[in-house]
Amino acid sequence: xxxxxxxxxxxQQIADGHTDFFKIKGPGVGDRDTGxxxxxxxxxxxxxxxxxxxxxxxxxxNKLAVDFYFPDEQTIVEVxxxxxxxxxxxxxxxxxxxxxxxxxNSVKRLLFITKPGADKRHSQPSSRAILEWAKRRFDIRIxxxxxxxxx
Length: 151
Prior knowledge:
Elements: H1 3-16, H2 29-49, E1 54-56, E2 66-70, E3 75-79, H3 90-102, E4 109-114, H4 118-121, H5 125-138, E5 141-146
Parallel strand pairs: 3-4, 4-5
Antiparallel strand pairs: 1-2, 2-3
Helix pairs in contact: 1-2
């Protein structure tokens, strides 16, 4: 299994360990829970991989960072738990992948890890057009993988 997909499995394990993970909590409480989730995911990933692949500034001198970058796999992973929402960072995260690509950081895949609902939301024509354009113009495949609510 590659590192990006293993990271998804780690995220799923963390989500499974929190009974209220999939509840909509709103600003404040939800933001704090997301921060705790990300800290735990970064910690576990660093331990499992023996290296910290998180918060990589590969998009140039602009201080933009991707959540995780696995150079050997040419893969960026963005943990976008709110990707199902209209105001998500979908386009911004794709732009970061393109900017990293243009900075000579090899990027062939962008994996979004998200809560349920994102795949349906981004199966609409506007999102599909962006996904197809990124693949056609920059050869970046974009995958959306939803964490499962096993309860």
